[in-house]
């Protein structure tokens, strides 16, 4: 499993930090963020704390200069011309750069909060761990530049890039930042209305969606985006080709193909997801709780259970009486100390019971294998049958931060193996042999040695797979489950959807998922 995890990390490392652009001079001078390439030894270094006025700075600075430290808060740089100058750990709050000529400039671990960079000419700019809160950069030229950051330094809250030239700009994040650049604390949106993002690299920046970046009128032409970012474009008019990125793969989509996918997501994955009943007629306290805005996971669970019950009752009509009894138990949760936790457990247990009643349904024949991944492009079943989706499937598998590979052996038992990477490179691992469906719980389980206790590992519901407790089993009852699936604090196995892959690609995951004997 460790060898497999290293392979998965290598795929993301190959994409995220390795694509340094020669057109970012400060990166060449200082080295890359990841420490893989050292900076140049011949770069001129200046102590910024000894500079007290713009005239001193101009006199001291030459091309290819690093200024370390210094208090330049409120300084007026508008009339200055600086080429390939890198400010490191400098205070530049409220400084003025409007229309300045500063090609190749860099701001590294520097504070630009409230600064004005309107119309600045700064192609090849480097913004590394910089505080860009409330920076006004309307009509700025940041072409071929780069933004990168870490968990504790920097911010881009309220950054305004309206009508800016961001062509070829690299919004760079890494494998440990699976929720996008953590520079953005979500207190204020980023505005890039009308910005030119032609050939810009966005795929690792807020990779789970571009919801809090205002892109009205922005030009996305061959812009590199992730599958989840494409899904977040639903409702927008796509006028240019886009490049979909997943792991080491890149696939260019025509505007029509990208539009078809985004439109399909809008239909298949509506924003409003109600429970199976009409919330306006909710009677019990449990139903009213399920309808609360902050209980959307319960609404999802209710809708899923209703669908599963409809399938199961066709097989066994006697389940109707059991369902009525379960509804009483569900409603009794409102008298518990933690009613919502009780409701979640009640729905999960009942869902498993109904899946167990449905039986195995021969979803995987002996000798066959299946791969389940994060469903970051939630298109409809009909779209998943198209040639377009088949072309994207290997890329979607590489784009997923986690996977579970399931194989059925000749004796009917199952082998499951998987991994997932979360924030800060926390990870999950899963590995189990000898799995069989437990009809009492609906979980594919391992029988404990020396007893008949069934240890729950994975649950299969149609094309969906769930790992027990999302990889976080706790308590004495679930202690044994941790031997087969476990996660670091900031990682989890989210529900995964089966992806159909060419045989050779599926076989590569089988090799990666090889278990220790």
UniProtKB/TrEMBL annotation:
Pfam families: Pentapeptide (PF00805). InterPro entries: 5peptide_repeat, Lysozyme_Inhibitor_LprI. One of its GO terms (cellular component) is extracellular region. This is Pentapeptide repeat protein. The lineage of its organism: Bacteria, Pseudomonadati, Pseudomonadota, Alphaproteobacteria, Sphingomonadales. PANTHER family: LIPOPROTEIN LPRI. Transmembrane segments: none annotated. Keywords: Signal. Residues 1-22 form the signal peptide. The keyword Amino-acid biosynthesis does not apply.
